């Protein structure tokens, strides 16, 4: 926490994991300060000693709040849900709640890591686009099928949940890597509805303190 008592979010504007947390903070009207962490510098990942001490995994996001530091976006969101439960991001009904967690884990564990910058750097510049497209398309094939049975207005029913916080940043990654979204009408419909909400707009990568001028909107 800062001297003002605000939580501190260590974030990178383009990080989809950071975006998930920014959406949660916005939805729950939690005022916070952002410390940008530059993930791309001199062709590699370089971090300050302070941040390496803060998060040994050297990944964003990390959130300083209530006297503790939390890494991993879903763990952060779950903590915010437990300590600041309004509005609810996990349904009260156990069956709906497990669907939210399942979809969140599918994206956060089964899609996003496979197309993350750290992985793409290992496959060679000439293979990066095809690799990312395959990883995202494979995951979206499964996700589209699941959402057809779980979705209402949003991923699980008609209330915004943690699953939606994972979906929107992943669709942005898909667009960035030029994935054809035509085969995924349910994903596209939910994404469009979510992007109309203020919390998803203010947390958008184009509106962050470290967003480059040419990418601002």
UniProtKB/TrEMBL annotation:
It catalyses: RX + glutathione = an S-substituted glutathione + a halide anion + H(+); 4-maleylacetoacetate = 4-fumarylacetoacetate. Its EC number is 2.5.1.18, 5.2.1.2. One of its GO terms (molecular function) is glutathione transferase activity. This is Maleylacetoacetate isomerase. Residues 5-88 form the GST N-terminal domain. Belongs to the GST superfamily. Zeta family. PROSITE patterns: GLUTAREDOXIN_2 (PS51354), GST_CTER (PS50405), GST_NTER (PS50404). Its cofactor is glutathione. GO terms for biological process: glutathione metabolic process; L-phenylalanine catabolic process; L-tyrosine catabolic process. The keyword Phosphoprotein does not apply. Keywords: Cytoplasm, Isomerase, Phenylalanine catabolism, Transferase, Tyrosine catabolism. Residues 93-213 form the GST C-terminal domain. Signal peptide: none annotated.
């Amino acid at each position: 926490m800062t001297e003002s008592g605000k939580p501190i979010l260590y974030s990178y504007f383009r990080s989809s994991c950071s975006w998930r947390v920014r959406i949660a903070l916005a939805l729950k009207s939690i005022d916070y300060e952002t410390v940008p962490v530059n993930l791309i510098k001199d062709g590699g990942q370089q971090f300050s000693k302070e941040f390496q001490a803060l998060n040994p995994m050297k990944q964003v996001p990390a959130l300083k709040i209530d006297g503790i530091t939390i890494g991993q976006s879903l763990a952060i969101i779950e903590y915010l849900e437990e300590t600041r439960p309004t509005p609810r991001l996990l349904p009260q009904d156990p069956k709906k709640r497990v669907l939210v967690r399942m979809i969140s884990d599918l994206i956060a564990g089964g899609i996003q890591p496979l197309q993350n910058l750290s992985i793409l750097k290992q496959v060679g510049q000439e293979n990066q686009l095809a690799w990312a497209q395959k990883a995202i398309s494979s995951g979206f094939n499964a996700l589209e099928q699941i959402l057809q049975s779980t979705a209402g207005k949003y991923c699980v029913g008609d209330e915004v949940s943690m699953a939606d916080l994972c979906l929107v940043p992943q669709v942005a990654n898909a667009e960035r890597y030029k994935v054809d979204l035509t085969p995924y009408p349910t994903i596209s419909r939910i994404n469009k509805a979510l992007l109309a909400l203020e919390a998803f707009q203010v947390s958008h990568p184009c509106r962050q303190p470290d967003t480059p001028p040419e990418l601002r909107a």
